[in-house]
């Protein structure tokens, strides 16, 4: 069983030595002319090291080095006759270096020297510290590969069967057990426990090493002491999925979170209406995509931002005649008719492949560039250059609301200029969204089943007809597996930037810009026209329509019916008037399709 990467090289060397009952450093060789070669450059990243069998200077033999010597030296065996000495530039002619070379001369016919950065040696020895423990684990997995594979596939298949969005494998080495918690319709439920914990550890180790796409791994080899990520393609019941892996060490153990993403380049892409957007929101998103400037989708983790972005790119006019480039960390969904660049940041954080990919994309004659997320000032600068160069851009960001997206982009970490964000052709609009569980058909009428205080607020403060509101049935039914909810729907606010809003943003008056947006509301909360309505007010409409439970909605959005501030209507609503089919106002720089 082959383990890729640097740690794999260490492990394979130790395993081979153990199986042959040979000393790790190798036996004496016939006298030969000793050859020393020095590489021309400096290796600055541990992943830039050549393939090797074993780190010779990490053991306890006569080649072992002190802690101080390890800060400047290492030796790795390439094969039975060749060894590479890794040395920092300052230690190139030190006594320690010359002494190590002298010890290697009687054992290996060919010695090469490579200059490396200090951080390379630190990472190399850090990985080696886990090697003894990992060798034992791999010997166990090699003997029980079938069991590890079966355990992991059982976990994944149950997630698909339960229609889970995520699986949390929470491994407690202190308690010698692992809990499998699945997020179903937005809530975590513990559906299984694995004992001993080593069974779960072997299963996730197998998945990371054998099933994950090699280019998606943040590190070449599994390490439970690091925060790692990767993508695992898998087929279950004829359906193609990508399991997006994120692992994190914690006190007493570690956990692995797997996001279930149904993929396939020919798979059906849901429409905005199918996601849960109202007709007026759908029309406005289409207009924003046809306009100059960027469209930014904000939301919390797990709010469906990437899914909405995948749908949005299908709405680009004449898309078959345009070069559309996605840059994601890593790629989640296959998107037909686009160029997808999947990048992966490492746990060490050395370098930034995202920035390199963005620079590459700008040299590929793009019409539309979709970076997965703007995370720092350098990324923001490239995104700004891209939009100012006349390209259409779409991206996502983590934010707590629509206008807080502006605060996020102008924060110290990202540092985008307010003059840029408030310029006429830079920002077309903002989408802010979340997901909330939908009621099962077994739901109960609110009247008589909803607490008196909430019922009074829905009728008095928000003007909802309680006769149309429904609530979760305790214990549910067989169709919803006793949960009372089935599936999820989008709640969203879609904000078109206007001239007045841009002026306020340039001056730093985001709250006034938000108030201007909200004062444009022209219909009651039970009307599908979402003009000027917030995400909470979209939730009120779905409560009024009997689609979501009032408390489920308020809890998901972290709002209370009591404290939520209601803005007055822009114009009085005439009884019986229907304004929901009025077209959404076009952005002030809209371009005909």
UniProtKB/TrEMBL annotation:
Q: Which InterPro entries match?
A: P-loop_NTPase, T2SS/T4SS_dom
Q: Which residues form the Bacterial type II secretion system protein E domain?
A: 155-524
Quick check: keyword Acetylation in the entry? no
> Does the record's keyword annotation contain Nucleus?
no
Domain of life, per lineage: Bacteria
Which keywords label this protein?
ATP-binding, Nucleotide-binding
Pfam families (alphabetical): T2SSE (PF00437)
The UniProt similarity line reads:
Belongs to the GSP E family.
Its protein name is Type II secretory ATPase GspE/PulE/Tfp pilus assembly ATPase PilB-like protein
Q: Which organism is it from?
A: Paraburkholderia unamae
